[in-house]
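EI: anyone free to look at a 152-residue chain?
SC: sure, send it
EI:
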Amino acid sequence: MSTTTTPAPARDTKALVLDILSALARFYMAYVWIDAGTSKIGVPLDVTKTIEAYEIFTPDWSYLLAHIIGPLELAGGLLLLLGIKLRWSGKVSIIVLVLFIIGMLSAWQRGLVIDCGCFDPSAAGEGETNLLVTVARDVLYIAITGFDVAPV
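SC: here you go
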């Protein structure tokens, strides 16, 4: 009695490439969120100044957001890095990026010359960010995140 085993089907090359690209996208966005979040932790007054520069929130709300945003960005990056709740954390990332874009476009439309405070809130007031370039970068981040969370 001979038993023959059939070899496992070879993994589709296209699926393998998509898996690798998805992992790279996830790890890159994890890096982006962790970098952004860690830069805001421990410097709430700098973050508050950055948020106030957008002239959207009251000083009290800006102060509250300054204490929340860094840890949330860090947590989101860690979820992506560790592969926990990937679709959920990716969708939340896209929502947050859209909110950031709305804030930047609002500031740009009103002629505000500000630093976005995205990765270095201590630089607030030292210069300005080209808000449209920053919006384009965030649109690219949305595309990268969307690629990672889209069902294949």
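EI: Residues 13-40 form the longest helix (28 residues).
SC: 👍
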